[in-house]
Write a structure and sequence with these properties.
By secondary structure, the protein is an alpha+beta fold. Helix content is about 30%, strand content about 25%. It contains four helices and eight strands, in the order E-E-H-E-E-H-E-E-E-E-H-H. It has a four-stranded antiparallel beta sheet with strand order 1-6-3-4, covered by helices on one side. The chain has a two-stranded antiparallel ribbon with strand order 2-5. Strand 3 and strand 4 form a beta hairpin. Helix 1 packs antiparallel against helix 2.
């Protein structure tokens, strides 16, 4: 069964090391649910940049992948939002490409994690591919990320703001 863990801090300084530890601990506390892979997305160095870490296997493997990376864990952030996920494969085999979070496009405009099955994912993929969307995974959830981007781009007059 999938597990989802999100974390945000607002006007409270945290460094990446602490943020990554909070995310991995949140996932580890859900390990009893069973899963085959884990991933997370955190803010990068540039505005709008997202850094992904994904690994097949247990959260310990995800922690190892993070430890082996060149990411600056000392960088502090005053406000940030991050998401983590453990996956039980239903569409597409366990693989780094199929780990969540999944993105809407190369600019990471929308990031999605999901627990469940998108029953019309095949039809959604076909429609979105005809509209030029390129899929990077074999998951049903990626169709949700792409569909969100398509709807957002199609309706500029209906965009929400959180400011």
């Amino acid at each position: 069964m999938c597990g989802i863990f999100g974390y945000c801090n607002f006007l409270k300084e945290k460094d990446r090391k602490e943020i990554l530890e909070i995310l991995c601990t949140g996932l580890a506390r859900q390990e009893y649910r069973g899963y085959d892979s884990a991933g997370l997305g955190i803010d990068g160095d540039k505005s709008g940049e997202i850094v992904f870490f994904k690994e097949v296997g247990k959260v310990a493997g995800l922690r190892q992948r993070i430890a082996e990376s060149s990411i600056d864990t000392t960088k502090s952030m005053i406000s940030q939002v991050s998401i983590a996920h453990t996956r039980w494969a239903t569409h597409g085999p366990p693989s780094v490409l199929n780990c969540h979070p999944l993105r809407s496009d190369v600019n990471n405009e929308f990031i999605v994690v999901h627990n469940g099955i998108v029953t019309n994912a095949t039809a959604l993929r076909q429609v979105l591919q005809k509209r030029g969307f390129k899929f990077e995974s074999e998951t049903d959830t990626e169709a949700v990320a792409k569909l969100t981007k398509y709807v957002y781009d199609s309706r500029p007059d209906k965009r929400m703001t959180f400011r």
